[in-house]
Specification:
Blueprint (H helix, E strand, L loop, with lengths): L1 H12 L4 H13 L3 H10 L5 H13 L3 H15 L2 H13 L3 H9 L3 H7 L6 E13 L7 E11 L4 E13 L3 E16 L2 E23 L5 E25 L2 E24 L5 E24 L8 E8 L10 E11 L2 E11 L3 E2 L7 E2 L3 E13 L4 E14 L4 E15 L8
Antiparallel strand pairs: 1-2, 1-16, 2-3, 3-4, 4-5, 5-6, 6-7, 7-8, 8-9, 9-10, 10-11, 11-14, 12-13, 14-15, 15-16
Helix pairs in contact: 2-3, 2-4, 3-4, 4-5, 4-6, 5-6, 6-7
Length: 424
Amino acid sequence: MILIFSIGIQSYSQKASITEVDAQTYKLFTAEQWKDLIVYGEENAQNSYYYNVRMGVAYFNEREYYSAEKHLKKAIEQGNTDFAKEYLFWAYYNLGESFLAEQAYDQLSTEAKKSVDLKKTAIESVYIEVGIKSPNTNEVENTYYGNIILKHRLGKNIRILHSVNTFIQDQSAQDFNSFQYHISGAYFINTSSISIGAIFNESEFNSLTNEIIIDDFGNNLIEEFISNSKGNTYSFYANFNKRFNRFRLNANFNYIAQNSTIKSIDKVTLESDGAIISEEFSKTKNKETVYIPSVGVMYTPKFTKDRISIGADFFFPITEIETNIVFKPYLNIFILDQFWLNTSYLQVEDFLFADYSSEILYNTPDLSVKRFVSTINYAFSKKLITKLTYTFENYKFNTTALVYDINSIFWEYNINFNLCLVLL
């Protein structure tokens, strides 16, 4: 029994020869049996050009781009062929690693570049977004939102981003208008990038409320409260981002300063003839600053076949009063190459805050926000991508004891000028 057991162990642990592995991987490769090739190749691992390029192509066709990247890079070191480089280019492109994709493209021969046809245009992409934020209360009207982002290149390693967005809310009792400009620059080094940016936000809120009251003599009085609030918010940030195979790490530092002026008039008049009974005027100026260091990590587990990435950002806002911790988990699910889903959750309590990864969230010291975001992305082609974003927010204003929910729908459209579509 001991002898039989030993023979069984020896037979099970014995691997196929190099010649057998080469023949079988070639057979599965030419038959385009990608799943079987992956299973067999992992069970009989080798380290040759043909083994790695076949495994890289198999993983690529199964949309497991991190595994494809590993094998294709080895194949290029061993064989340095256009065939492997072109697949590596598309693997990087599908991973969203545009700088690495461009590096892979630069290594292609003139003939191979024609099949990819990457256009290194000054303007890389234009992103347009419009939407509506609809509250579940009659006290607040709908807000309309628009955003446009322009990305362009400045040299080989530098990318510049400009964005302008606006909120518009207009009704008889109140109106809100906001304008924001964002500029940032990123310098890329292989799998790392260093970014610096600045954001300027200007907003104005006007409100008018009327209430009929009765004085001690039985006269009807109209109390009219008019409020005007103007604010400027400045934000400066620096970010470092690096990918370690399936891990992505980022570190960020954000400085935010907000200056606001609030003017109010409380006027009481007789309803009968409009005579002024009393009138009070007030003006206050406020200044808030906050420093927000943050770190984040994202991981794509191999067992998900590169379909699911999980991550979280940890913010540590430092105000004049206290230091807080904000936790923002997120999840990315790639259903298909052209169809994927992103979700995130964020809760901010009563302090000035800006999420540097978002174009549409600025928090104020008197507001608590719970925010859930889910975005469906669909790529009509490598050049045209559309997004539909749903946002649920719970607002709690401490100064007015007003609590309400906001449901938002945003539609986005991204046009990429770099690629003419020629797929493998």
